[in-house]
Amino acid sequence: CDPITNIDDIHFNSKDKSIFWLNTYGTYHTKEFKQIISSTALDDFLLKLISNDKHPNKVLELDNVIFVAIKVLKTETENFDTEQMFFILTPHYLWSIQEQKGDYFEWIRERIRENKGIVRSKKTDYLLFLILESIIDNYEDTYDDISDSMTILNETSDVKPTPEFTQNVEKEKNTIITFKRAANSLRDIITKLEKTEQQKVNKKFYSELNTQVNNLINTIDFDLQELESKINMIFSIQGHRLNEVMKTLTIFSVIFIPLTFLAGIYGMNFKNIPELDTEYGYFILLGVMLIVTLVSIYLFKKKKWF
Amino acid sequence: CDPITNIDDIHFNSKDKSIFWLNTYGTYHTKEFKQIISSTALDDFLLKLISNDKHPNKVLELDNVIFVAIKVLKTETENFDTEQMFFILTPHYLWSIQEQKGDYFEWIRERIRENKGIVRSKKTDYLLFLILESIIDNYEDTYDDISDSMTILNETSDVKPTPEFTQNVEKEKNTIITFKRAANSLRDIITKLEKTEQQKVNKKFYSELNTQVNNLINTIDFDLQELESKINMIFSIQGHRLNEVMKTLTIFSVIFIPLTFLAGIYGMNFKNIPELDTEYGYFILLGVMLIVTLVSIYLFKKKKWF
Amino acid sequence: CDPITNIDDIHFNSKDKSIFWLNTYGTYHTKEFKQIISSTALDDFLLKLISNDKHPNKVLELDNVIFVAIKVLKTETENFDTEQMFFILTPHYLWSIQEQKGDYFEWIRERIRENKGIVRSKKTDYLLFLILESIIDNYEDTYDDISDSMTILNETSDVKPTPEFTQNVEKEKNTIITFKRAANSLRDIITKLEKTEQQKVNKKFYSELNTQVNNLINTIDFDLQELESKINMIFSIQGHRLNEVMKTLTIFSVIFIPLTFLAGIYGMNFKNIPELDTEYGYFILLGVMLIVTLVSIYLFKKKKWF
Amino acid sequence: CDPITNIDDIHFNSKDKSIFWLNTYGTYHTKEFKQIISSTALDDFLLKLISNDKHPNKVLELDNVIFVAIKVLKTETENFDTEQMFFILTPHYLWSIQEQKGDYFEWIRERIRENKGIVRSKKTDYLLFLILESIIDNYEDTYDDISDSMTILNETSDVKPTPEFTQNVEKEKNTIITFKRAANSLRDIITKLEKTEQQKVNKKFYSELNTQVNNLINTIDFDLQELESKINMIFSIQGHRLNEVMKTLTIFSVIFIPLTFLAGIYGMNFKNIPELDTEYGYFILLGVMLIVTLVSIYLFKKKKWF
Amino acid sequence: CDPITNIDDIHFNSKDKSIFWLNTYGTYHTKEFKQIISSTALDDFLLKLISNDKHPNKVLELDNVIFVAIKVLKTETENFDTEQMFFILTPHYLWSIQEQKGDYFEWIRERIRENKGIVRSKKTDYLLFLILESIIDNYEDTYDDISDSMTILNETSDVKPTPEFTQNVEKEKNTIITFKRAANSLRDIITKLEKTEQQKVNKKFYSELNTQVNNLINTIDFDLQELESKINMIFSIQGHRLNEVMKTLTIFSVIFIPLTFLAGIYGMNFKNIPELDTEYGYFILLGVMLIVTLVSIYLFKKKKWF
Question: Which of B2, B198, C97, D258 is most exposed by smallest CB count within 10 Å?
Answer without folding.
Answer: B2
